[in-house]
């Protein structure tokens, strides 16, 4: 028998083969791509192609208070400090988190609580053919189709870390979808939830990079038209900063100048900016001295902020005929004195002037004073230059020798004019003093302050926000509700012109208003309305304290001249019923959009019932109270009948039943009992209307004396539920999801409140098509309603008109 002999170095060969097989095994398990049917959970992670970044779940806190987050970190970082977290506001309480691609192609994080969280809610996939990848840049992307077009990417939603290639700035300018991209610090070094510091481009001066802490801001860099001057001085050679300005975008970004290293910035929970560099596998924090300790002469690229005293002094000389600058602040609230203060506090600023002919807005100059004086005569601006500009001009060889004489003439003329003005003011002081005091008081009224706050809210809702609203939007803090004057509201609606009417309900008409190019909706309560001051106060107090993407935003109110007016964000697509029950417009609601609307309403309702600081029962959910924004996202509105529940309060009773016929639960309509389950009933009716495209209150069936609820249940019981689906949206790919919605809706409209699912259950089941649901019981109000009883009901409850009475609990 032939024997097999091994060479002397067979041991080494065996080790080599073992290493190769281990490497192949490792490479087979380590992947950068997540496909449908796969998931990331436990210790499973994604690793970028060159093993630079890693994505998975990480833990914070001790064993008794641990929270889990989906995040990205440098694979070679021994501390695994995340540079991005997907669920920083929604931590998972244990290690049961799972990241997967849902059947509709979107990324979802789920856990044992079965409360799904969409990773990409702002940019949804349009098909189920998607996959996600972790790139060597640290960007986590969701791509779609064979062309792998990017649907969503984590770089659009940074956390506290700025990586090379990330962008900080404003996008879609000039449209109604303006987007602000900025960094937000962690709450603490070990808690990833949003902290109180924000780094971004100033809304009023898009060339300035700043850090905000509530209402206090500090500029840390600016673009002067040629270079970006930054807070850091000694480390500028490591980065290639750039400022990009296009037709609809302004943003700041940077790249590494060295190919053998990666550098990045972190906004710390204390508001500091730390710079890090990784060479090979070594990560170090770069020492970068603050520019306040460096003279401007020795640091041309260093921005001097908030100095006590500048080298050229803090006095400014007025010169005529200066050219325009490309560094400006467009805010209409800034006068020339504001420009003075802003330039005076920045030693890098050598001059300022007004941006507009009316003296508002600011333009700033950062070049040498001598360079500015060389260009005098090239423009029409009146510029204020730091230091003794006349002395500088005299030393400038381009200035003529008659400059000194001209200056004396100017000084003499100015002195004479001031003398004449002083005498005139002294003579007329008594006559004008009353007017001046009145004007001063008028300018300081709370109405004006409310108007300013209202304009800031408009900016945050429809366009670039200021620093305060930017921090508040991140931290979701309450704001003082602006109270506008009736004259201001009248002006914005063109004196309540019929041409501005958006719609009308039982409360009165809704008008379209406009101020400074911003649109909003004005809800004017009619004096004939059943709603009174209590309902008005109820809605103001409730909705102004609620903030959720699926709740309409209240911007202000007016309580003047016996008027009761509410001002909301403008919803371009009006209410859901205007689409759903219109023969032509309903075709715009395909099945994906309808399912998305159902899920959005459920998320808003879950927030009201469970996650808001106030536990709210809406009591008047219906399709006309679901508004649609520009992207057809649903927002729950009209909180005039809403009630606050205590922590341990399960249900309440009212002596006077109010609401909308066709949407009320039986226990509320008959006994005046209401709870979260009464809202669930109303939501079930809305779901049936969305699936069928038919209105419950006007539904008629020639073969049966049933309403829409009874008709749906009979079809379901006979396995003909598909017949209820609106033929406009029914196709082979949508049947399964729509039948699931039909099943959930029938569970929601069951007669007994305890049989109906909770809001959490509804949200969970909507995201899981494979849920094992119980069969629905016969719905309430499904039998024939006596005609006389129907008339009696409609005497109290008019279709699509809401009335409200508020009682103490």
TrEMBL record:
It is an enzyme of class 2 (transferase). InterPro entries: Bulb-type_lectin_dom, Bulb-type_lectin_dom_sf, Kinase-like_dom_sf, Pan_app, Prot_kinase_dom, Ser-Thr/Tyr_kinase_cat_dom, Ser/Thr_kinase_AS, SRK-like_kinase. The chain crosses the membrane at residues 406-427. It is found in: Cell membrane. GO terms for cellular component: plasma membrane. Residues 1-30 form the signal peptide. Residues 310-388 form the Apple domain. One of its GO terms (molecular function) is ATP binding. Belongs to the protein kinase superfamily. Ser/Thr protein kinase family. This is Receptor-like serine/threonine-protein kinase. The gene is LOC115754923.
């Amino acid at each position: 028998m032939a024997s097999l002999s091994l060479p002397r170095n067979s041991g080494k060969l065996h080790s080599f083969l073992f290493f190769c097989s281990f490497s192949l095994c490792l490479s087979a398990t380590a992947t950068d791509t997540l496909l449908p049917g796969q998931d990331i959970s436990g210790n499973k992670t994604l690793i970028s192609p060159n093993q630079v970044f890693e994505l998975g779940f990480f833990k914070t806190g001790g064993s008794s208070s641990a929270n889990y987050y989906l995040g990205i970190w440098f694979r070679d970082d021994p501390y695994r400090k995340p540079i991005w977290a997907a669920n920083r506001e929604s931590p998972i309480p244990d290690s049961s988190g799972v990241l997967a691609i849902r059947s509709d192609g979107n990324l979802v994080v789920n856990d044992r609580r079965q409360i799904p969280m969409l990773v990409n809610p702002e940019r949804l996939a349009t098909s189920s053919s998607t996959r996600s990848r972790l790139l060597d840049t640290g960007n986590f992307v969701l791509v779609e189709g064979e062309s792998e077009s990017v649907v969503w990417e984590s770089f659009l939603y940074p956390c506290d870390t700025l990586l090379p290639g990330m962008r900080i700035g404003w996008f879609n300018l000039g449209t109604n979808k303006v987007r602000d991209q900025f960094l937000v610090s962690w709450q603490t070094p070990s808690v990833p939830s949003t902290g109180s510091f924000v780094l971004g481009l100033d809304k009023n001066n898009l060339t300035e990079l700043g850090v905000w802490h509530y209402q206090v801001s500090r500029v840390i860099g600016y673009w002067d038209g040629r270079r970006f001057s930054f807070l850091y001085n000694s480390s500028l050679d490591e980065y290639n900063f750039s400022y990009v300005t296009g037709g609809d975008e302004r943003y700041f970004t940077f790249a590494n100048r060295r190919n053998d290293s990666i550098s990045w910035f972190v906004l710390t929970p204390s508001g500091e900016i730390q710079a890090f560099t990784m060479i090979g596998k070594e990560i170090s924090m770069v020492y970068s001295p603050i520019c306040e300790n460096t003279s401007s002469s020795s640091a041309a690229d260093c921005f001097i902020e908030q100095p006590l005293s500048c080298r050229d002094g803090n006095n400014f000389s007025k010169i005529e005929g200066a050219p325009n600058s490309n560094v400006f602040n467009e805010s209409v609230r800034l006068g020339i004195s504001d420009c003075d203060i802003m330039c005076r506090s920045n030693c890098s600023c050598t001059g300022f002037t007004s941006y507009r002919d009316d003296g508002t807005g600011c333009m700033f100059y950062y070049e040498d004073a001598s360079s500015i004086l060389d260009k005098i005569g090239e423009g029409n601006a009146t510029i204020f230059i730091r230091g003794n500009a006349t002395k500088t001009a005299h030393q400038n060889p381009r200035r003529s020798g008659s400059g000194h004489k001209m200056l004396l003439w100017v000084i003499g003329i100015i002195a004479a004019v001031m003398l004449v003005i002083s005498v005139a003011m002294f003579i007329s002081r008594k006559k004008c003093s009353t007017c001046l005091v009145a004007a001063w008081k008028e300018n300081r009224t709370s109405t004006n302050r409310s108007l300013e706050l209202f304009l800031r809210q408009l900016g945050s809702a429809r366009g670039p926000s200021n620093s305060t609203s930017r921090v508040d939007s991140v931290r979701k803090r309450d704001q003082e509700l602006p109270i506008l004057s009736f004259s201001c509201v009248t002006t914005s609606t063109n004196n309540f012109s019929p041409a501005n009417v958006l719609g009308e309900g039982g409360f009165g008409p809704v008008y379209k208003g406009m101020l400074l190019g911003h649109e909003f909706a004005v809800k004017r309560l009619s004096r004939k309305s059943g709603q009174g001051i209590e309902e008005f106060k109820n809605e103001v107090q409730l909705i102004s304290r609620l903030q959720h993407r699926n709740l309409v935003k209240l911007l202000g109110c007016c309580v003047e001249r016996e008027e009761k007016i509410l001002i909301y964000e403008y919803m371009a697509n009006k209410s859901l019923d205007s689409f759903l029950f219109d023969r032509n417009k309903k075709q715009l609601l395909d099945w994906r959009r309808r399912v998305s609307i159902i899920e959005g309403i459920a998320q808003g309702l879950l927030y009201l019932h469970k996650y808001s600081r106030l536990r709210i029962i809406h009591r008047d959910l219906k399709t006309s109270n679901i508004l649609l924004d520009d992207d057809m996202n649903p927002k729950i509105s009209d909180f005039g009948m809403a009630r606050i529940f205590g922590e341990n309060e399960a249900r309440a009773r009212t002596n006077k039943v109010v609401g909308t016929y066709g949407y009320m639960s039986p226990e509320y309509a008959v006994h005046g009992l209401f709870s979260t389950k009464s809202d669930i009933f109303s939501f079930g009716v809305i779901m049936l209307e969305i699936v069928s495209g038919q209105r419950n209150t006007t539904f008629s069936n020639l073969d049966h004396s049933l309403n829409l609820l009874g008709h749906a249940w009979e079809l379901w019981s006979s396995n003909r539920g598909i017949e209820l689906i609106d033929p406009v949206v029914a196709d082979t790919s949508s049947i399964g999801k729509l039948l699931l919605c039909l099943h959930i809706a029938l569970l929601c409209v069951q007669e007994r409140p305890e049989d109906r699912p909770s809001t959490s259950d509804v949200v969970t089941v909507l995201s899981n098509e494979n849920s094992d649901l119980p069969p629905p019981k016969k719905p309430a109000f499904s039998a024939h309603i006596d005609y006389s009883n129907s008339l009696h009901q409609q005497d109290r409850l008019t279709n699509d008109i809401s009335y409200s009475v508020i009682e103490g609990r």
